[in-house]
Amino acid sequence: GAGVSQTPSNKVTEKGKYVELRCDPISGHTALYWYRQSLGQGPEFLIYFQGTGAADDSGLPNDRFFAVRPEGSVSTLKIQRTERGDSAVYLCASSGLPTDTQYFGPGTRLTVL
Amino acid sequence: RKEVEQDPGPFNVPEGATVAFNCTYSNSASQSFFWYRQDCRKEPKLLMSVYSSGNEDGRFTAQLNRASQYISLLIRDSKLSDSATYLCVVNSNDYKLSFGAGTTVTVRA
User: Which of B4, B95, B100 sits opposite A98 (nearest CB)?
Assistant: First the structure.
């Protein structure tokens, strides 16, 4: 079946701009996660959704970052006033239950110039 | 201190060799342990879970030492296709995965 998909695959933006990154989880998966991976590092947890609600957003670095999942399926990660330090690969994952294996999407590579 | 620490390598080994590496974790309450594999510019994929008694999956063997808080991965009879970054992953609650920075393995012909 179809895996987790993310769009766009690459995004180049200028400092100060607003960006939206989209994640389409595996059909039927109620748990959705966002992670951020900087060069040479492992992924770092940002936020976890169970259904439509953000059950844990403790990993969001500051209030410029926000994520939604209004219908319990597709999620959008929104970054306001982007900074060069936001450049990274943003990975989305989903699982059937929170304790199940997390399946990752291919990521969105964000570059802030 | 990072929650999960790994030797970054790289480990350069010839085909057919055995390679092994470890990671350590800081949270003694951690409950679940995994090795993920990540190819260059690709997403992480689950390689195997790690159980207290140790477990094997083909040429891959994982061990967990809860007392010393370290996890190991051993790859026997290395193949060129085993070249990748191996991420040590620890789960301290139901859903939040903590990743190490990865160990790079390069298998040469």
Answer: B95
If one counts every other C-beta atom within 10 angstroms of the C-beta of residue A11, the result is 18
Q: What is d(CA A55, CA A49) in angstroms, rounded to the nearest whole number? A: 5
- Identify the DSSP state of A102: P
> Which burial class, exposed, middle or buried, applies to A63 when counting CB atoms under 10 A from its CB (0-12, 13-18, 19+)?
exposed
Bridge partners (DSSP) of residue B86 are B37, B103
* Whether pLDDT at B92 is above 90: no
Q: Do A45 and B98 touch (CB under 8 A)?
A: yes
**Sign of the dihedral defined by the CA atoms of residues B98, B36, A8, A92, in that order:** negative
* Contacting residues of A for B87, CB less than 8 Å apart: 42-43
Mean residue pLDDT of chain A comes to 95
Could you give phi then psi for residue A32, rounded to 5 degrees? -135, 140
In tens, the pLDDT along A91-102 reads 999 999 888 899
Q: In sequence order, which residues have a C-beta less than 8 Å from that of residue A106 and are 6 or more positions away?
A: A4, A5, A6, A9, B42, B43
The SS3 of residue B10 is coil
- CB atoms B95 and A42 under 8 Å: no
3-state secondary structure of B71: strand
